[in-house]
């Protein structure tokens, strides 16, 4: 169930030229009961005092080395955006109002699919980062496969790429395909692809009887990938979607 709480900024860094990674702690010290894939909402007011809120997927909580729970988000710069201004300018130690967790974009226990196709662009990869521990269990217990197709314009904009690469090196059943829409990176890797993620789907040969797909991020990408997967015969209930639409 969603709770209201305050988050204090503990750490931050630029993940990419226009994406800031923010790591928070709850001011009340309570843990956030969170299922990987869910999001939180940041509550604030416009300059005229009108209250508003924005949603952000929770990346991961803690790295195991700290007794304090960390709540991490990745915020993409939006020109003229109100939350962009707030979160982009937040200084370490400052607190914001938030609530959560929300959402059902999660890996379901009941799924018995042989392959999970995870698709994202931009900060839409954040929920999959949160899911990595679950994916590890899934790969070990069920022997299924997981493919992550992640669209970015170039290597600089590939968020958490090294983490996904490291996970793929450790887990044979996990394949990470970065898809670059503006051309190859300087040192291309075997699983790199060129183009838009929705155009890579045919290569995966989606199968209605084996696959479940998750789509997260830019609404146009989500719609295009959804249409492509349906054309490949996937049933609507086997395609889960999280669109990063403005919640104003
Ligand atoms: C479930 C969910 C999860 C989300 N998770 C994340 C996340 O993890 N990281 C993240 O960065 N965002 C995420 N978003 C989007 C986020 O909630 C905000 O919409 C986004 O940060 C813009 O807010 P803003 O206040 O800065 O811009 P606004 O003040 O809302 O918008 C300013 C202007 O930019 C336009 N605009 C708004 N959003 C975009 C956009 N994405 N691209 C181009 N133009 C835009 C608006 O139409 C408006 O003209 C998520 C959205 C949803 C619904």
UniProtKB/TrEMBL annotation:
Transmembrane segments: none annotated. SUPFAM superfamilies: Ferredoxin reductase-like, C-terminal NADP-linked domain, Riboflavin synthase domain-like. Its cofactor is [2Fe-2S] cluster. Residues 2-108 form the FAD-binding FR-type domain. Pfam families: FAD_binding_6, NAD_binding_1. GO terms for molecular function: oxidoreductase activity. InterPro entries: Cbr1-like_FAD-bd_dom, FAD-bd_FR_type, Flavoprot_Pyr_Nucl_cyt_Rdtase, FNR_nucleotide-bd, MRET, OxRdtase_FAD/NAD-bd, Riboflavin_synthase-like_b-brl. PANTHER family: NADH OXIDOREDUCTASE HCR, PROTEIN RFBI. This is Ferredoxin--NADP reductase. It comes from Luteibacter anthropi.
